[in-house]
């Protein structure tokens, strides 16, 4: 009997406490936002001092990072492998969940990013009528794995190399993220909403303050938002609609003289069916473009590293050899450094200035130090070119050729803005860069060999002046020494190719051959050999921006507002500071009357109603299928309810 009473008491206690507190752990910082991963076993938190913490469900801390920027929003990728952070200055930061390392930084907005939403394509929403075959990326058939960011030889991770231990995570992240079609939506404080496929390829942008709005329930069609700020965005799993909550003033554009405006929280329904209707085409283009953007960064880092390595070696060379002109002037001579070395080479005389320079100022130790620095820089340059720069430009060339082929399928890809002429232009630009890289490789090899031969000859001269044996010094080619003195002592062909404003001289025969090749399908720009490697790379970047801007502009123009539903008003004095809990969720509607499964996602909008807006206090509003409400001819189809909380409770956040 006693046992039965205890069981009844425990059952009653369990019924009175529907939720059980699992952990109550202190944190040394105030948490301003937190987000569970899709599997609900990892919790990402942002503190007031903009540190990002990742904990397991058992409160085990995995890592803590400090991005160095004020974090204003956070969300997870659909597969739970990436954390996206929005910053106060409009950046989107993508971090690897495994170790917190930065994967990508994008400048999406000019103001603070107040909300993020990452939606993945629902495989079941693909219409049966679409017989478009899945696209296969053929790059792996013809090329080895894509190169990673170059690293300075001899440096451990954490030093000043351009790459760290996470360098191989970036191509892996890009490959994994491109398997399923997904879109990252970001909402800015200025009313702009940006769309990025895979979170890395910008594909659209709208400003809710500039788009026409239909409010059919009031019998008017010409409304516009003013001073609107995005509060929450959510893209449906079928990618056909975006539900957006924003604070702003609703202006009647037909009766501006009446000054009739309503400030408050509004629910917008945006038609994003272009993402659904052209998901295959967008997936293919974005897959190629995202990989191209990564490889462009590899090219940029490679050129930067080559420039730094060569500049360091040449600074040491000129620092030591600049002492010779000063010694010549001090001895009252009027000859140049080239004349002095040529006189020594031909055995006519050795001036006191040159003797002092070789025996004292430079010396054998100084010469070997310079030779070692130049040789080390040469090995680094050869490694970067062969392992990073050249493979990157070749893979870019192949991927752009693939995009060029897709652009010629006008019935499929013209509607998303893939322009054939722009792709022809960028394909030619990458082809010219491939030639530039090959020329740079040959010039660098020639220059390094001439330096090595010159240092060998100078070392032999130093030993002769110091009366030391020279049998261990290899013989030098006198003709190559003359070439070095004529063209390299005071000039730097490698530096010329690494400067954007340098004009490269091209001999007449080569220029004539380039012009003749135009007839056989060669480059129409016959002056490209007069540009440096860096200038050609800059031209490629400009061509890529122009080519990828066309899909961005085209998609942006096809995103429309289909309706607006005012939720509650706010007074003008509290409009700018209003920030109440809101939530947008999509759930699959098994009872949907639509035959097409793509329409079976129903949205639910939840919002805390400020106490001053309605006669009721402490209320939460829930609206079902707001998109249908926004586009219906009347609000008779409005489905929702109000939840009244006890007065002693305060709502700080909500989610359905």
UniProtKB/TrEMBL annotation:
Q: Which residues form a coiled coil?
A: none
Domain Anaphase-promoting complex subunit 4 long residues, every copy: 266-465
Repeat region (WD), residues: 71-105
Keyword Cell division listed: yes
**What is the designated name of this protein?**
Anaphase-promoting complex subunit 4
Q: Which GO terms describe its biological process?
A: anaphase-promoting complex-dependent catabolic process; cell division; protein K11-linked ubiquitination
Give the keywords, sorted.
Answer: Cell cycle, Cell division, Mitosis, Ubl conjugation pathway, WD repeat
Q: Name one GO cellular component term.
A: anaphase-promoting complex
User: Entry's Gene3D superfamilies?
Assistant: YVTN repeat-like/Quinoprotein amine dehydrogenase (2.130.10.10)
Pfam families for the chain? ANAPC4 (PF12896), ANAPC4_WD40 (PF12894)
Question: Where is the Anaphase-promoting complex subunit 4-like WD40 domain positioned along the sequence?
Answer: 35-120
């Amino acid at each position: 009997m006693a046992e039965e009473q205890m069981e009844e008491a425990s059952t009653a206690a369990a019924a009175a406490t529907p939720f059980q507190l699992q952990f109550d752990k202190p944190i040394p910082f105030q948490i301003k936002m937190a987000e569970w991963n899709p599997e609900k076993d990892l919790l990402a938190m942002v503190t007031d001092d903009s540190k990002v913490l990742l904990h397991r469900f058992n409160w085990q801390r995995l890592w803590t990072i400090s991005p160095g920027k004020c974090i204003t929003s956070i969300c997870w990728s659909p597969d739970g492998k990436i954390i996206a952070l929005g910053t106060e200055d409009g950046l989107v930061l993508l971090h690897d969940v495994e170790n917190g390392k930065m994967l990508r930084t994008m400048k999406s907005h000019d103001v603070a990013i107040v909300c993020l939403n990452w939606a993945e394509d629902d495989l079941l929403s693909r219409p049966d009528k679409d017989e478009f075959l899945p696209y296969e990326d053929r790059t792996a058939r013809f090329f080895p794995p894509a190169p990673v960011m170059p690293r300075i030889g001899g440096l451990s991770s954490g030093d000043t190399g351009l790459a760290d231990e996470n360098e191989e995570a970036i191509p892996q992240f890009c490959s994994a993220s491109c398997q399923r079609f997904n879109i990252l939506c970001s909402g800015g404080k200025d009313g702009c909403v940006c769309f990025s496929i895979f979170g890395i390829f910008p594909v659209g942008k709208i400003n809710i303050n500039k788009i026409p709005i239909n409010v059919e329930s009031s019998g008017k069609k010409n409304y516009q938002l003013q001073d609107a700020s995005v509060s929450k965005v959510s893209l449906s799993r079928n990618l056909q609609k975006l539900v957006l909550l924003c604070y702003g003033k609703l202006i009647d554009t037909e009766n501006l003289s009446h000054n009739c405006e309503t400030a408050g929280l509004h629910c917008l329904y945006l038609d994003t069916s272009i993402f659904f209707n052209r998901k295959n085409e967008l997936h293919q283009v974005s897959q190629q473009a995202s990989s191209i953007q990564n490889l462009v960064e590899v090219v940029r880092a490679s050129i930067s590293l080559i420039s730094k390595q060569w500049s360091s070696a040449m600074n040491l060379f000129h620092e030591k050899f600049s002492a010779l002109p000063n010694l010549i002037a001090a001895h009252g001579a009027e000859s140049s450094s080239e004349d002095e070395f040529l006189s020594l080479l031909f055995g006519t005389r050795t001036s006191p200035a040159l003797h002092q320079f070789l025996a004292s100022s430079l010396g054998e130790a100084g010469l070997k130090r310079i030779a070692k620095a130049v040789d080390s820089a040469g090995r680094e340059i050869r490694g970067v070119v062969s392992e990073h720069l050249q493979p990157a430009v070749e893979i870019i060339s192949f991927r752009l050729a693939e995009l060029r082929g897709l652009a010629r399928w006008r019935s499929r890809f013209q509607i998303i803005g893939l322009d054939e002429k722009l792709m022809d232009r960028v394909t030619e630009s990458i082809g010219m860069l491939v030639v530039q890289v090959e020329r740079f490789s040959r010039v660098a090899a020639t220059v390094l060999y001439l330096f090595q031969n010159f240092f060998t000859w100078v070392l032999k001269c130093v030993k002769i002046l110091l009366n030391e044996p020279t049998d261990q010094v290899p013989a030098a080619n006198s003709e190559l020494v003359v070439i070095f003195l004529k063209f390299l002592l005071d000039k730097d062909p490698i530096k010329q190719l690494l400067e954007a404003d340098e004009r490269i001289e091209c001999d007449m025969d080569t220029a004539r051959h380039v012009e003749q090749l135009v007839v056989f399908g060669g480059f129409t720009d016959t002056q490209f050999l007069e540009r440096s490697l860096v200038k050609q790379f800059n031209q490629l970047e400009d061509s890529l921006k122009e080519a990828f801007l066309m899909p961005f502009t085209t998609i942006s123009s096809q995103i429309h507002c289909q309706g607006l539903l005012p939720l509650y008003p706010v007074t003008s004095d509290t409009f700018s500071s209003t920030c109440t809990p809101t939530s947008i969720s999509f759930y699959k509607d098994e009872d949907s009357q639509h035959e097409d499964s793509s329409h079976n996602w129903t949205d639910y909008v939840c919002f805390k109603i400020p106490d001053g807006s309605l006669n009721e206090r402490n209320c939460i509003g829930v609206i079902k299928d707001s998109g249908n409400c926004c586009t219906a001819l009347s609000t008779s189809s409005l489905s929702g309810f109000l939840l009244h909380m006890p007065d002693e409770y305060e709502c700080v956040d909500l989610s359905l």
